[in-house]
Specification:
CATH architecture of the largest domain: 3-Layer(aba) Sandwich
Strand order of the largest sheet: 3-2-1-4-5-6
Structural class: alpha/beta
Mean pLDDT: 94
CATH superfamily of the largest domain: HAD superfamily/HAD-like
Radius of gyration: 17 Å
Number of helices: 10
Number of domains: 2
Distance between the termini: 11 Å
Strand content: 5-15%
CATH topology of the largest domain: Rossmann fold
Order of helices and strands: EHHHHHEHEHEHEHEH
CATH class of the largest domain: Alpha Beta
Largest sheet: 6 strands, parallel
């Protein structure tokens, strides 16, 4: 069965990320009195960000009564503000190697390109605009566009519905985190591919049983040929 859609994560998969996201997350947590390490933050990076905040607060030792919606919202707002400023102004906002060429080759084969992300839509749209990807991708779904973020299949299913794709075996998922891999597996995608350009090493990704692990995004082309 031929592939009709490839869904890519953003930060760490298609967009260069030298842990800017993790550092912004750390700063937002610190502003509210919660000192967490980058090592604790990185495994959470693929999740919908309000959920990641809740998970980190629990890990920090906060009780259920301490973890209020208001606290989560306030930390997330600080994170969003930092990320919007970064993606609007930093010269470091660039695609990872071979992303544009991979997108063009997929489009030449008639394969749709989707982006999904743990970011909220306001951040995701800034990245797409900044990189001039509006004409290169076919669909963008952010974590706040669906009831449940990754690792649930909601974002990919929304793409499939909007693109009139009924069989997940016609879809491939590519991402750099545990939740990217599990999103693809939970959707039933033909392939759920881990990539080593972001938060996890090859060994770290293999623990979550991806169908493949790649070191460069261009390797997707050979896998789906």
């Amino acid at each position: 069965m031929s592939v009709k859609l490839v869904v890519f994560d953003m930060a760490g998969t298609t967009v260069k990320d030298k842990n800017y996201v993790g550092l912004a997350f750390q700063k937002a947590m610190s502003a509210h009195g919660y000192e967490v390490s980058i090592a604790e933050i990185n495994p959470m990076m693929g999740y919908e960000k309000p959920l990641a905040i809740k998970m980190l607060l629990k890990q920090y030792g906060c009780s259920e009564t301490e973890i209020t919606e208001g606290l989560i919202f306030a930390i997330h707002e600080d994170f969003v503000s930092a990320m919007i400023h970064f993606y609007q102004t930093s010269a470091e906002v660039v695609p990872l190697p071979n992303v544009a060429d991979t997108f063009l080759q997929l489009k030449a084969r008639g394969i749709k390109i989707g982006l999904d992300t743990g970011f909220s839509r306001n951040i995701a749209e800034i990245i797409v605009d900044r990189l001039n990807w509006s004409d290169m991708i076919d669909i963008l779904v952010a974590s706040d566009d669906v009831p449940r973020g990754r690792p649930f299949p909601d974002m990919i299913r929304k793409m499939m519905e909007e693109l009139n794709i009924s069989d997940p075996q016609e879809v491939v998922k590519v991402g750099d985190t545990e939740v990217d891999i599990n999103e693809g597996l939970n959707t039933g995608c033909k392939y759920s591919i881990g990539i080593t350009t972001g938060a996890f090493t090859r060994e770290g990704l293999l623990k979550y049983h991806p169908t493949h692990v790649i070191d460069d995004i261009s390797e997707v082309l050979a896998l789906i040929s």
